[in-house]
Amino acid sequence: MKGIVFTEFLDLVENKFGLEMVDTIISQSELESEGIYTAIGTYSFSEMLQLLQNLSNNTNISIDNLLLVYAEHFFSVIENSYPGLLATYKDPIEMLSSIENHIHVEVRKIYPEAELPTFIVESKTEKSLVMIYKSSRAMHHFGLGLMNKTFEHFNSTADIVLEKIKEDGTEVKFIINKN
Questions:
Q1: Which residue of 10, 40, 64, 145 is surrounded by the most CB atoms within 10 Å?
Q2: What are the residue boundaries of the Heme NO-binding domain, all occurrences included (predicted)?
Q3: How far, rounded to the nearest angstrom, does the alpha carbon of residue 148 sit from its chain's CA centroid?
Q4: Dihedral, CA atoms, 165, 93, 159, 119, nearest 10 degrees?
Q5: How far apart are CA 86 and CA 79, in angstroms?
């Protein structure tokens, strides 16, 4: 997993819960990196799982809810760092339906070793989108949070239903209906 995911996560933890919480969750985890991350480095996903689990244990906030909050934070990083990417789109459905064929292509140019989830568009209309999320990492709530922020970015709203295809969350169906 790319280091930017870790550095931004720890920034979020510091901003929301304080520097002491960052120290606490790093200390409670068994991290090969010892909690030292660079944005361009590559680190084990198990480290993110440990940090999330320890943050959840210390805050009594579910991992899914932490991932939603983190996605909102991460979207602002995308807005600030890559405004041209978002400016390519005029509509949230258009943007979300192009994750696999455009956005992930651009991400791989910056982070060639990035292990990204797969998004398969099952159906698309002007007001609806059905996508299948597949990943060895069950971070579908991170994806849900990014989708929510996408609609907010375009001053729009949507009802987004998440249906687990595989119970472990490695395959999920997103049913999106724009309001």
A1: 145
A2: 2-160
A3: 11
A4: 10
A5: 7
Dihedrals φ, ψ of 123, to 5°?
Answer: -155, 150
Distance CA 7, CA 151 (A): 25
- Say how many domains are in the chain: 2
Specify whether 116 is located in the same domain as 162: yes
Question: CA 84 from chain center: how many Å?
Answer: 19
CATH number of 112's domain: 3.90.1520.10
How would DSSP label each residue in the chain?
-BHHHHHHHHHHHHHHH-HHHHHHHHHHS--TTTT---TT-B--HHHHHHHHHHHHHHHT--HHHHHHHHHHHHHHHHHHH-HHHHHT-SSHHHHHHTIIIIIHHHHHHH-TT--PPEEEEEEE-SSEEEEEEE-SS--HHHHHHHHHHHHHHTT--EEEEEEESSTTSSEEEEEEEE-
The answer on 7 and 81 residing in a single domain is: no
pLDDT of 71 over the 80 cut: yes
Lowest mean pLDDT among 3-12, 118-127, 136-145, 158-167: 136-145
Indicate the pTM of the whole model: 0.88
User: Do residues 83 and 106 touch, judged by C-beta distance below 8 A?
Assistant: no
pLDDT averaged over the chain? 92
